[in-house]
Design goal:
This protein is α/β, with parallel strands linked by helices. It is built from 8 helices and 6 strands; from the N terminus they run ββββαααβαβαααα. It has helices spanning 71-80, 84-87, 91-103, 144-157, 188-198, 204-217, 235-246, 252-258; strands at 7-11, 30-34, 46-48, 67-69, 107-111, 161-164. It has a 6-stranded parallel beta sheet. The radius of gyration is 18 Å and the shape is globular.
Amino acid sequence: MNKKLNIVLIIGSAPDAVKATDWEKANFSHIIAINNAWRIRKDWDFCIHPEDLPDDNKPSSLSHHQSIITASDYVKVQNSFGGFVYAGGTMAFTAAYWALGALKPDVIGFIGCDMIYTTNGEATHFYGTGQADPLRQDVTLQSLEAKSNRLFYNAHEQGCVCLNFSSLNQTRLTFPKLDFEKLAVINVEKLEYYFKHYSGNLNDEIIDQAQKVESDLGYYFSSGRYWEHLDEICATKLLQLDKLWAKCFGHQNLYNSVTK
């Protein structure tokens, strides 16, 4: 490989996030921990969290290479991708859009971000039971799959591939899955092949429709605090937009052929 790929790992708080504990740091350019996930491994580079994360859940000290990413950092980046209403107001997507804008990766890999929560009393997070934030009643989160598709498309337009390193049977992410142990097959040649053939798997007409709807609706709030503008947002119209993003492509079979 002539070029070392810029691979960003995003770690969420699901129980299987602990799989990332022993993964070699050398495989990644940067590691982003969401909320409490900084506890999973000590060598993370960025911890990203919302404004309301309790102080007790934040790192008490930082090494020289570590930074905390807060709303003052990620809101302006999120706005450059259309804002929170269209991207989905949950940290897995916020972290990814921030990474796209700030780190310019070739690959974003996710672990512990499947957003599947048990109802049988089992642990919902690696630290026990926590709030299932993506499942709260929120007008921007009516379809996590649609928001996932939108992120995948925006990443692709920037020359980046989103992958899911999870081995769970269920996930709300629509990204192609890849076993972490097979990460070595992702090289420059594979990515070039992928991008060369991917355009035929996109439904340009539907994407154009979705982007026009976003523009026409105008649900853009520069502060990022869309919850202060709920009377200006129509949930039905957002759901119709989600339905467009939900059917904008079918990438998994294509990508599986690339990563064999």
